[in-house]
Amino acid sequence: MTATTVRAVLFDTFGTVVDWRSGIASAFDTVAARHSSRLDSVHLADAWRRRYAPSMQRITSGDRPYTDLDTLHRENLTSVLAEFELPFETSEADVYDLVHAWHELAPWPDSVPGLHALKAQYTIGPLSNGHTALLLEMAKSAGLPWDLIIGSDLTQAYKPDPAAYLRPAAILGLAPAEVMLVAAHNDDLRAARDSGLATAFVARPLEHGSDQSIDLEAESDWDVVADDIVHLAELLHPRLAR
Amino acid sequence: MTATTVRAVLFDTFGTVVDWRSGIASAFDTVAARHSSRLDSVHLADAWRRRYAPSMQRITSGDRPYTDLDTLHRENLTSVLAEFELPFETSEADVYDLVHAWHELAPWPDSVPGLHALKAQYTIGPLSNGHTALLLEMAKSAGLPWDLIIGSDLTQAYKPDPAAYLRPAAILGLAPAEVMLVAAHNDDLRAARDSGLATAFVARPLEHGSDQSIDLEAESDWDVVADDIVHLAELLHPRLAR
């Protein structure tokens, strides 16, 4: 850990705090059931998620003005539906529900207790590509006890753009080194460290399912490496160890 | 109440949620004690607060770019100290502590329980002239369980500028009528209603001390009129009445 005292612990959300894959697969299942049909819902969830980073990259590179995730998710869903031949015609309500499913993803079992433990000592919030309204709805439905929510609409930047890491620190009135990013993704932590933030890796070996091959472990000497968010809270204030 | 369902209940903070006058008077007392002296601290707190609205008015009128409350408070304190002859020389630490005292004001006794009750059913947050970092520190020290904090630095607007009311609604993804402002100040509610927000008056008859003469009661047919924030929570979901 750096000598600077961390005052805010901010979290990547999709994958790190909430389980997007199960939640989105379940949303596809719900839509299929509505049409008395079945889908390879996990496959569709993965295909949808694969379009996530490239769609933001066009914004980070300056080819496109800031556009929020609801819009990107809807566009990407349109391509997924065009690519995969579904056994039924999707309605506008289906599309709405699928896009909206990203607002109501369930937390990993350790997320809520871990965040409560951290909140006693640190400012906690998301540092996510989600916009504020999406992250608020996620927090209310999942019970995430954030102190505040600074969405990508407020920073007008998507990770790994340095502004996505530096603007939240500035809004908090903190130096970058006083802010820690917690993520299950080594590339996110690399970009955060490049911007001067402290870093914590939390393993999420089931984010991509049981045959996950990436981000199974820390790929650098991140300031903290934890098994989950409860463990992270223990490492950050060891006096509260279980 | 309007037919539209309120989804977010946002609060004026200084005076409505926290007791600025006692807190600032106490900060002057602390500074005086440091110099083995005494001050008419309530008088100084009132003199400082009187400069609050005019200093923001210059920004709302466009005469000055957005400048946060820490800076305005510091400038206004300099005028107060120039006007009142203090029996000692104030240090930079004194000035810092006084400006910082606005970050750590105590809540009225009903604020925290009332906010917890409201949070179960609504999105809650401040709609204050404070900037995000100030409001965050206030929330952490006073235990205010906001869902999110959208400070004036994020809206770049001070009340009663319509943008100060409309931008938080837009960030929340809500129509103005889906947002309720709660305030102990009739003029704040007038401006909120002019922008289409729902309104709730909460009486704070001791905000300005025991001889307060303004804002003792609702001066219009606000959507809700409550004795305090616990009462407001009861009125907004009557099934939880005590």
Notable features of this structure?
homodimer, 242 residues, alpha/beta, Rossmann fold, DNA polymerase, domain 1, 2 domains, five-stranded parallel sheet, 11 helices, 5 strands, 45% helix, globular, hydrolase (chains A, B), 2-HAD (chains A, B), 2-haloacid dehalogenase (chains A, B), hydrolase activity, acting on acid halide bonds, in C-halide compounds (chains A, B), HAD-SF_hydro_IA (chains A, B)
SSE topology:
The structure is a homodimer of 242-residue chains.
Chain A lengths: L7 E4 L8 H15 L6 H10 L1 H9 L8 H15 L8 H10 L9 H9 L3 E4 L5 H11 L9 H4 L6 H10 L7 E5 L2 H9 L3 E5 L21 E3 L2 H8 L6
Helix pairs in contact in A: 1-2, 1-5, 4-5, 6-11
Structure description:
The structure is a homodimer of 242-residue chains. Chain A is α/β, with parallel strands linked by helices and 242 residues long. The first copy, chain A, folds into two domains: 8-19 and 105-240, 3-Layer(aba) Sandwich (Rossmann fold), CATH 3.40.50.1000; 21-101, Putative phosphatase, domain 2 (DNA polymerase, domain 1, Orthogonal Bundle). Chain A is 45% helix and 9% strand. Chain A is built from eleven helices and five strands. A five-stranded parallel sheet of chain A has the order 2-1-3-4-5, with helices on both faces. In chain A, helix 1 (20-34) packs across helix 2 (41-50). The longest helix of chain A has 15 residues, at 20-34.
